[in-house]
Amino acid sequence: MPRRKTTIKLITRLPFGKDDEFTLYIKDSSGNWINYTDYIDKHNIDMSMNSVREASFQLIDIGSSERDVVKELAEVMFFIGENNLFFKGRIQKVEYASDGVCGVQVLGTEVNLRDWEVETLSGASGSTKRQLYEDVAFRTIIKELASETGDGSTPWIIETGDSYIDAYGNLTMRFENVDRLTCVAKTCDSVNYDWSVRTPNYPFDSDYLYCESHRGSQTSVYTFNTTGANPTALITSREKDVDNIFNDVTLLGRGDGDSQITSNVYAASKVYSKITTKVNSYDTSITVADASSFPASGTIQIGEETITYVSITGNTFNVTKETGTAESGSDDTLTDTDKSWTIDAYAGKEVYIVSGTGSGQSRTVFSNTSNTLTVGQKWDTNPSSDSVYEIATGRGTSSTTAIDHFVNVLVFKYYSKTSPESDSSLDIYGRKSKTIYNPDIISTSQAELVASRYLEDHMTPPVRIVVQPYSELDVLNSINLGDVVTVTDSDAGTSDDYRCVRIKYSYDNGNETVNFELGNLKQRYVSSVQNAVNTNTKTGTAMQGSTFFYTTGETENCDATHGVDIDFRLPDDVVEVNKLLLDYSVSAPRVYSVASASGGASHRHDIDGEATNAGTGDKFSLFAVFPPYYAQSGHYHNNAIYDGTSSYPMYFNAQSPTKFLSDGSSGTIKTGTAYPNMVSWSDANISFEMPSTSKVSGTLDRIAFTIFMLNGNLGTTTFTYEIRDNNNWGNNDSHRILYGSKSVDNGKIHVDYEPTTIDYRGDDIYVKIDPGGTISSDEYWLGGIMVDINTKHSHVIDGITTEYKTASHSHALTYAISERATTGTTMKVEIDGVDRTNDLSISDLSDQEGLDIKDYLKEPLAGQKHTITLTPNGDRRIKADLYIKGFTEAKS
Fold first, then answer.
1. Which value, to the nearest 10 degrees, does the dihedral of the CA atoms of residues 447, 450, 451, 456 take?
2. Of 527, 447, 438, 501, nearest to 182 (Cα)?
3. What sections of 724-789 are H helices per DSSP?
4. Are strands 220-225 and 484-489 parallel, antiparallel or unpaired?
5. Is 594 left (phi over 0), alpha (psi -120 to 50) or beta?
6. pTM, whole model, 2 decimals?
7. Distance CA 143, CA 139 (A)
8. pLDDT tens-place string over residues 62-102
9. What does the pLDDT look like over 624-649, one tens digit per residue?
10. What is the CB neighbour count within 10 angstroms for residue 82?
11. Which of 391, 419, 450 represents a domain boundary (last residue)?
12. Count of structural domains, the chain
């Protein structure tokens, strides 16, 4: 059986470049890298620390097919040796000449970040293109800036991750209307980190963003011998810039005046180190890189804060502190009865609960008694008998303030500016002050870090050396940006280390030149894109924005359910509120008028409350009688009377109406109509006209009628009665005012009714009374009816109109300011719906002045309505005023 053949397919990746040669590749539209080394006539590559790399080259003999590749946005790679990538970027500009020559300008791949503006980022707050990170991890900020969607994950603009970003801690950063690359540079610059974009691995498809505490090797990777028998390099330039020495640096951040972020650092001692672990304002342990030169105990200076320490453990300063275990605590106190403290000795110091109940909390001490601390802000969890605490008594000494300090901030042995240590920068060079303006700095701790970094670079004279090696390509493969190198002078017997901060490599018609710029300062991208940062001019401050002042207030009578509200809104462009102070005074409630009655009999209004508006009116009454009638047995005598000789119509006879109307108006009484030969009671009635005057309301207040016997007996007769505003009797409709029946009681019928509130002005009112049967004997009847019509007389009490019937009278208002009696003993203060009475230490109704309420407003301060509500628990008058001082940013 023949042996089966096996085929093996080998895939080999071709390397880029050649040993000891410079090569150029440009990617075409299909993703293939095309070698263009043979077309190069000249080139120049310039790479600096923390800056966008640049390159330019000139190509010759470029035809139409080459033009399809050499175009804007095409990717470019330069190699020195095989697979040794020296520069990667993209073409920004191509200029063609008529003779097949073209010039090309290239920027490093980091420029991709510059194409993306800062927009909504996951870990930040603010509006589109204005982003604020508050106390957010350094790594989180960088990753979100490098991702397309701002969430710190794929898809990436330039890939990054924790393995490419050195940890730092949390930062507060603000970006507005800038590109992502500028944001990355500013973020790294604020913590003294180096940033770069590099492409480390074959086949060089993936670029990575690096953010490092120190780019390159921190130990020397190469030695330049500049003199002696075997020199390897030539020093073409050496500068020691004594004009750029600054040993007293002040940084001014966002804001101006009292609201401006500031920090000052100075070099009055030659003994110093740098913080390696973030220091909180309450910490009593401070770790630095090297504490060996400091005294065993003493005072150190970090920025503007002075700190006393009692010992050093390794590289950690042990700060003076007071410790103990609480016995009890309330929402704003901590009590330790084992203590006998001096009154208010710890006011302004930080107390920190190390363990037990409430551990991890820190507060600023507002005041203290012999054994109780009162803190300025309520505890989240009240201390208890197991709460172990410490007071950082050694922090913020000599009237300074304890603050947070970031990693890499300088720590000096304490000396004052006026009495510096011998051989310190201030002693040698005198006081050299520098003020830096940077409106992107929005926290004191960050301002301190930037100022400290600048001081470190400038408290000794900046040194700049340009070295030109004799073997260009070999050295280019040995030194990267950020590496430490050694420069020796055998003749002078000196050897010093410097960082490589810039590399320039040029080629022109066969001539190669390599220059390494070495120095003790970093070059920073921020300096090149923000020329005004270090400009000490008033314009720098003015361009940031302006301070504004705003006052508002309310004055109102209040009680336990009706407080006084102070509403206000801060503009959207407010970036800082420096002061927000509340004043209020409490007094008796005021009224501005008193009511009095005149023109009538003594009367009263049985209504609880205070009359605030009273009308005047008149009374209108009618009284009608029907005279004695004679009724003959066996007949319906509803429509006539019989006196034994003749029959007469039966009717109601109205007496003259009582006139109480001031305009002389009256109603008209109409007599009933006779209907002879009727055998029922149905049409004997009285009618009257309601007055049309505006002096009456037109509603019937009272209707009453009575029928009784003069001769005879009504017996058990039941009378039916009906009152209408028309004479369509018997209809149960809207015209019926009153309907009912009444039985005889002790020889008489009496109906008394207080009817409706319907307005009957100008209407005829009809009344019908029907005994419902025949007369059993000869009788004499006597009856009468009375009608009261409401007048237009009302009192308005708390928005409710009420009426009162009494004799003719009027009301008058006497205008005068008077005070009512006061009630209540306590005040509640609410800020944006939250009760802050205890936070502000309000215990009674006493006047308050200068209450600082800024920290209790809901976030964000700008762009939304805020409300302060003051509510006494009784009747009081409150006058409240609000004073606001803040800072608004400038608009371009």
1. 160
2. 527
3. none
4. parallel
5. beta
6. 0.54
7. 6
8. 888 888 899 999 999 999 989 999 999 999 999 988 788 99
9. 554 444 444 333 333 333 333 333 33
10. 13
11. 391
12. 7
